[in-house]
Design a protein that fits this description.
This protein has about 140 residues and is an alpha+beta fold. It has helices at about 15-25, 30-35, 65-80, 105-115, and strands at about 1-5, 35-40, 55-60, 85-90, 95-100. Strand 4 (about 85-90) and strand 5 (about 95-100) form a beta hairpin.
């Protein structure tokens, strides 16, 4: 399964994405069961010198669990001064947003995404722009 990790709202997303990419490459579980790659969500405009890096694409093998990914993302966020928001999206468009989730909340959210049943609202309940969640629990 391919997941796309992005950092919406960061002032210097490429620098932060490079940091997240490096972090995932240094994680033993990610090295064994996933293949993180820097990527672009849009093709470069004509005349541009390379793609704008705005996501980390993660090809996840069967041995890489949602718990491993959640712990990796939670640990990386803890090293950042502002704990950036991370959006994780599947190829079918289902997504979750991790902004203030604990490691356990992140694990549950990512497990629901990996299993194909994103929680109501598709995030951790800590985003103000969550219009789809009617009960606020995630």
């Amino acid at each position: 399964m391919r997941l796309e990790l992005s950092l919406p709202g960061t002032g210097v997303p490429e620098e932060e994405l490079r940091s997240l990419h490096g972090w995932l490459l240094s994680e033993p579980a990610a090295r064994r069961h996933a293949r993180p790659e820097l990527g672009a969500s849009q093709p470069s405009p004509p005349g541009a010198q390379g793609d704008l890096i705005d996501l980390v694409s993660l090809l996840v093998g069967s041995g890489f669990s949602a718990a491993s990914l959640a712990l990796s993302l939670h640990a990386w966020r803890a090293t950042r001064p502002q704990g950036p928001t991370i959006t994780v999206e599947r190829p079918d468009g289902q997504r979750i947003t991790l902004s203030a989730a604990t490691a356990e909340e992140a694990r549950l959210l990512l497990a629901s995404l990996v299993d194909g049943a994103a929680p109501a609202g598709g995030n951790d309940g800590n985003d103000e722009d969550d219009e789809d969640s009617d009960d606020g629990s995630a």
